[in-house]
Amino acid sequence: MTIAEPGRTALILIDLQGSNADHPVHPHTTGAVLERCVRLIEAARRAGSLVVHVRTSFLPDEADSLSGRLRTDIERPARPVRRQGWDHFLPGIEPLATEPVIIKRSWNAFHGSDLDLQLRRRGIDTVVMAGISTGFGVEGTARAAFDHAYNVVFVPEAMAAYTAEQHDHSVRVIFPQLGCVRPLDEVVEELVPTAAATP
């Protein structure tokens, strides 16, 4: 079954940024996720698929953040202490001038951004999801992609979460109801069928 037609597919990378290198993630390390995402980027670019880079960022006073503003059982600090460069992309993630960079201010990269516009103007109907973290930014964006009637492909090897349980729940329970869960090698091969045969 064809899951991704290169010209109509976008790779959406969630929060491959400094803040996600500051704490452990599971079941894959940030380094492992980064390496696998770079492999996806290379395949997508070779195939002529769109690569979309998403990062979380706020104004200096974080007036555009919801942290600490809403009532939740687990409190989030109103203004977390941020280190310099927390919202910069990790080494190896260098968007090309032709690749959209989306600023995400919640768990859903579609909310308050032009992500849907960027995709529709290019005739995209399928999105491949990867990044950190599985159960928050990736799942939040994927739910919105489903609501916007995009086909969604998940690459769990190129994702990680704050706990292995969070990652596993999204991959086993949520993602199969939103789209197709596929191994990294299969997605790369689908995008560039000759890649595996090229030395």
Structure overview:
The protein is of the alpha/beta class. It has a single domain, classed as Isochorismatase-like (Rossmann fold, 3-Layer(aba) Sandwich), CATH 3.40.50. Helices cover 31% and strands 18% of the residues. The chain contains 5 helices and 6 strands, in the order βαββαβαβαβα. Strands 3-2-1-4-5-6 form a 6-stranded parallel β-sheet. α1 packs parallel to α5 and α3 runs parallel beside α4. The two termini are 26 Å apart. The C terminus is likely disordered.
Whole-angstrom Rg: 16 Å
Strand order in the sheet with the most strands: 3-2-1-4-5-6
> Between the first and last Cα atoms, what is the distance in angstroms?
26 Å
Write down the domain tally.
1
Q: Helical percent range?
A: 25-40%
**Can you tell me the residue ranges where pLDDT is under 50 for at least 5 consecutive residues?**
195-199
Q: Give me the number of helical elements.
A: 5
The overall strand count is 6
Order of helices and strands: EHEEHEHEHEH
Query: Would you state the CATH class?
Result: Alpha Beta
CATH topology: Rossmann fold
What characteristic shape results from the CA principal axes?
A: globular
